[in-house]
Specification:
2 domains, SH3 type barrels, five-stranded antiparallel sheet, alpha+beta, 3 helices, Alpha-Beta Plaits
């Protein structure tokens, strides 16, 4: 990101800080009320819940989105839009996001600004059993059985550890936001 001031009349991409979990609302408000282009890449993946497998869609950059506008003309209207906290700036100057960065992100993302993330189950993956009689158990995958859509998991029963085969479709990797750091 650059911290250059835009020249009068020049449109640039800016990063906007969004209020918690307001990415979709802010995007709609900026598009419809302010009338400016907005880019908010999303990730779609499966997550385990007590009730089973659920598909979630979350912002790739939680709490942020990108908007294309003339800063000197629109900054007040953008900054006061529903869901927007403020325009990201450094040293009092708005941070311009280079067009190449936005274009590169867009080449990675489908037409609807959503990336579908597959569930990868490998040995050592912590998983939740989301279907069948062992539903609700959290365990570790010990091996993948190729060609049979089954995996072996480690179960602790009556004080002993046992390796049990289960259908891969009954498991879901334990995950938060896929881009979250390990320490977060």
């Amino acid at each position: 990101m650059k911290t250059l001031m835009d020249s009068p009349g020049q449109e640039n991409w800016y990063c906007l800080k969004i209020r918690p979990r307001q990415e979709k609302a802010a995007k709609v408000a900026l598009l419809t009320e302010v009338g400016i282009p907005v880019f908010c890449p999303m990730l779609r993946f499966e997550r385990a819940r007590r009730t089973g497998r659920v598909r979630v869609t979350e912002a790739m950059f939680p709490g942020y989105l990108f908007a294309f506008f003339r800063h000197q003309e629109c900054y007040r209207q953008v900054a006061t839009t529903n869901g927007v906290s403020h325009i990201v700036s450094f040293g009092g100057r708005p941070a311009i996001v280079e067009q190449e960065i936005i274009e590169e992100l867009r080449t990675l993302i489908a037409a609807n600004d959503v990336i579908e993330l597959p569930n990868r189950i490998e040995p050592g993956t912590e998983v939740n059993v989301v279907d069948g009689p062992m539903r609700g158990i959290r365990t570790i995958v010990t091996r993948v059985v190729p060609g049979r859509a089954r995996v072996a998991i480690l179960l602790e029963l009556l004080g002993t550890s046992r390796e049990v085969e289960i259908e891969e479709s009954a498991l879901l990797p334990k995950q938060r936001h896929p881009l979250a750091t390990a320490t977060a």
